[in-house]
Amino acid sequence: MAAETEPNSESASDVSETENLTLVQAVRDGLQTEMQRDDDVVVMGEDVGKNGGVFRATEGLYDEFGGDRVIDTPLAESGIVGTAIGMAAYGMRPVSEIQFMGFIYPAFDQIVSHAARLRTRSRGRFSCPLVVRAPYGGGIRAPEHHSESTEAMFVHQPGLKVVVPSTPYDTKGLLASAIRSPDPVLFLEPKLIYRAFREDVPTGSYEVPLGEAAIRREGSDISVYTWGAMTRPTLEAAENLAGEGIDAEVVDLRTLSPLDEETIVESFEKTGRAAVVHEAPKTGGLGAEITATLQEEALMYQEAPVERITGFDTPFPLYALEDYYLPEPARIEDGIRDAAEF
C-alpha cells in the first residue's frame, strides 16, 4: 500500500513543529529522538563519538548521551556488528554505523549468518532489534570501496529488512521505524544527497512505516520505480518528458525488503509500461526482481518490455567516469522514452 500523507505519531503536537533539515541532519535528529525516547538505544561505530562520524551524522550525541551510549569502536566491521547482535539479543537496540557500504563486507557473515537468522535459529526465543546504518552509492568523488551500491546482496537474505530513504522527512521516520523494529534492518543512506536539499521535518517522534512505497509523481503512461539518490534525477526526467506528452508515474520504493508489491503492481496495472532506475550494476539488481514481479502478477496488463536504467556491470569507476556510470536525467529520459514509445 502506498504511503499515507499523515505520519504515524506518538504526539500530534510534536509533529506540528518542524525544522528545515538536510538528509544527514535528519539522520542525526532521528538518532537523537530515539535515544531520548528509549534508553536501550545505543549508537556504535568508528569515529561516531567525539568526532561525530565521518559525515557528522552523530555530531553532538556523545556530548549529550556519553560514552556508554555513543560508543567508538575499533576499525573492525565484523566486530562492530557481531557485538551489536549480542547486545540486541539481550534486549538493547543498537544502531551500528559502517562508514561506507564498501566496508560492510567483513560484517556480511555476521549480518546474514547471525542477525537475519537469530529469530528462526532460536525458535523465537531471541530476536535481533538491530539497525546497521551505512552511507551508500556514488557521485561524491570518493576513492575505491567508497561508492558501492550492493543492496541486492542483502535483499536476497530472508529475515533482514533493507530500507533506503530519499528525503529528510522519510529519513527520520523510517529510521524510527527501523530502530523500533523487532528484527534487523539494514538502513542505507544515499550520501550523494546528504546535503543536496532541505525539507521540513517534525521535531518530535514519528514513524514512516517500513514496507510502503511512496508515489512521488502520479502519471498515466508509464510507471518508473526507483529509490535513494536516483529519485531526484528520475523526477527531473519525468518532468522533462511531460513536455513531450509522456506522463510518467514515479514510485519511490523506500523499502527494498520487503517490497511493496501492492503499490508496484497497482501502478503498472494503471500504465501498462514500466522502467526501473537504480545505480547498482544491471545484472542481478533489484530491477530484475521488480520485472519478475510484474510478469507474475500483472502480465496481461503489459504493453512493452520493462526498461532497466542502471549502472554498468563493472566495478564502480573513479572520478573521470563517475558521472557517466550513474544514471542521470538524459539517460533516464532515453530509457523511459524507449518503453513509452515501444
TrEMBL record:
InterPro entries referenced in this protein's UniProt entry, alphabetically: THDP-binding, Transketo_C/PFOR_II, Transketolase-like_Pyr-bd, Transketolase_C
Keywords: Oxidoreductase, Thiamine pyrophosphate
Domain Transketolase-like pyrimidine-binding: 21-196
Listed cofactors: thiamine diphosphate
GO terms for MF: oxidoreductase activity
SMART domains assigned: Transket_pyr
Oxidoreductase in keyword set: yes
Keyword Secreted: no
Biological process per Gene Ontology, one example term: organic acid metabolic process
Pfam families membership: Transket_pyr, Transketolase_C
Protein name: Transketolase
